[in-house]
């Protein structure tokens, strides 16, 4: 009879949410912290590389783009590895490789080897987000904590030990995640997919035991419905408009979220007192690196100061209240309105960066800008998961994440190269991007608040 069998989904529902999921969230948090710290590291390293190796703004942007390129290239490969060999083995391998190449980066002696090492870091950490499939409820908060932690480490390390030690310390969360992964059980769905029903049942019993619950009676069987793996399904007429608009929004996520993170460092490093700098534009600190690129005026070699790092910590912590407020808004005014509001507020903040302001006002504007864009990013995860039917959900999220990488690969050119011509050019581009995001979100064809998932 139907009551004599149950699926992995039935077992997870019976086991409920409890101690097991909380531990999973903490372990997954190390992965998200590692990802976040690598992103923050990209912006914090640029001033030191300009001083030590005389890299141009274009080369600084290239070092950032290489990490995202490796990340984008390897993500589908890691997904395949996890499907074939198991999620646990894939996560341990990815995090250990990320830690290894992170340490290698600290010992590089030229920009070329540095670039290759960062590309390899990107290849490795492309597999770490597979941890999001464990449980995702609390992970965005770990991302915000990781960003602030990276800036805090830089504040303590950079003035005395230098950028190589910062790179090394930034790899530690990957090592912690790799060690923590030994506690993880293998995915029950992976075991079922490979016909290992006994191992799957053992895993599910462990989950139920941690949560002090019981599994359903009967025999564990494979789930009959599988997700689609054809991209064409996302562009079927009934999904096409939604899919195209979601892809536009996710490109903007990568462009605008990572953009304001990198742009913050450029503003502080610039020396332009009108836009966040603390020294006159003609003053150099420690050394001056003259650009050889035609048309680019290098403002000189300027290390970030302790005050700069402290202000970066403050703006990084803005993501925590941004996420809390967003979680309230999406349940009150809905997903589309939250999307549109966050993008609109981001545009207002970046538009304000065009005018001359004191350092205090610059910090306030960056604080709000990062908060609302972090909220928009979180809304994107929720909306994208809800708008597609179950059979397309994983594919929809994966494709959207890929488009975010396209935006993130483009933003170093905007934040680092174009800012070397004029500091307000990135602010104008990010403002236009926020306006486009707000309009696109407001015109989404479906509101998912209160809608039953298909």
UniProtKB/TrEMBL annotation:
Any Gene Ontology CC annotation: membrane
Domain Major facilitator superfamily (MFS) profile: residue ranges: 21-449
Organism: Pristionchus entomophagus
Upper lineage: Eukaryota, Metazoa, Ecdysozoa, Nematoda, Chromadorea
Top-level taxonomic group: Eukaryota
Protein's cellular compartments: Membrane
TM helices/strands, residue ranges: 20-45, 94-117, 138-157, 163-184, 244-263, 312-330, 337-355, 424-444
Family to which this protein belongs: Belongs to the major facilitator superfamily.
Name of the protein in its database record: Major facilitator superfamily (MFS) profile domain-containing protein
Xref: PROSITE patterns: MFS
InterPro entries (alphabetical): MFS_dom (IPR020846), MFS_sugar_transport-like (IPR005828), MFS_trans_sf (IPR036259)
Coiled coil: none
Topology of this chain in the membrane: Multi-pass membrane protein
UniProt GO molecular function: transmembrane transporter activity
């Amino acid at each position: 009879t139907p009551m004599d069998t149950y699926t992995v989904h039935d077992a997870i529902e019976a086991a409920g949410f409890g101690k097991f999921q909380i531990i999973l969230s903490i372990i997954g948090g190390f992965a998200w912290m590692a990802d976040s710290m690598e992103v923050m590291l990209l912006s914090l390293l640029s001033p030191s590389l300009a001083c030590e190796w005389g890299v141009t703004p274009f080369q600084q942007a290239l070092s950032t783009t290489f990490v995202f390129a490796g990340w984008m290239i390897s993500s589908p490969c890691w997904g395949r590895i996890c499907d074939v060999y198991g999620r646990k083995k894939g996560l341990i391998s990815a995090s250990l490789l990320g830690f290894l190449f992170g340490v290698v980066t600290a010992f590089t002696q030229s920009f070329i080897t540095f670039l290759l090492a960062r590309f390899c870091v990107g290849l490795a950490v492309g597999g770490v987000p597979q941890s999001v499939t464990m449980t995702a409820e609390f992970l965005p908060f770990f991302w915000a904590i990781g960003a602030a932690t990276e800036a805090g480490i830089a504040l303590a390390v950079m003035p005395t030990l230098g950028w190589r030690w910062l790179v090394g310390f930034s790899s530690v969360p990957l090592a912690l995640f790799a060690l923590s992964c030994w506690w993880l059980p293998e995915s029950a769905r992976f075991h079922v997919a490979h016909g290992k029903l006994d191992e799957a049942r053992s895993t599910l019993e462990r989950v139920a035991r941690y949560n002090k619950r019981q599994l359903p009676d009967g025999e564990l069987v494979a789930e009959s419905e599988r997700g689609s793996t054809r991209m064409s399904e996302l562009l079927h007429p009934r999904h096409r408009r939604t899919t195209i608009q979601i892809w536009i929004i996710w490109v903007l996520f990568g462009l605008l979220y990572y953009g304001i993170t990198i742009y913050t460092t450029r503003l502080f490093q610039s020396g332009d007192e009108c836009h966040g700098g603390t020294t006159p534009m003609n003053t150099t600190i420690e050394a001056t690196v003259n650009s050889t690129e035609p048309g680019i005026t290098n403002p000189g070699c300027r290390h970030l100061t302790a005050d700069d790092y402290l202000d970066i910590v403050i703006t990084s912590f803005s993501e925590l209240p941004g996420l809390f407020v967003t979680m309230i808004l999406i349940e009150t005014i809905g997903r589309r309105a939250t999307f549109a509001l966050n993008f609109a507020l981001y545009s207002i903040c970046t538009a304000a960066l065009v005018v001359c302001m004191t350092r205090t006002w610059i910090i306030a504007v960056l604080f709000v800008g990062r908060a609302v864009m972090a909220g928009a990013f979180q809304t994107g995860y929720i909306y994208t998961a809800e708008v597609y039917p179950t059979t397309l959900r994983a594919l929809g999220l994966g494709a959207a994440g890929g488009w975010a990488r396209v935006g993130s690969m483009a933003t170093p050119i905007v934040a680092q190269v174009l800012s070397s011509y004029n500091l307000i050019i990135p602010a104008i581009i990010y403002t236009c991007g926020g306006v486009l995001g707000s309009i696109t979100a407001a015109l989404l064809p479906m509101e998912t608040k209160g809608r039953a998932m298909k």
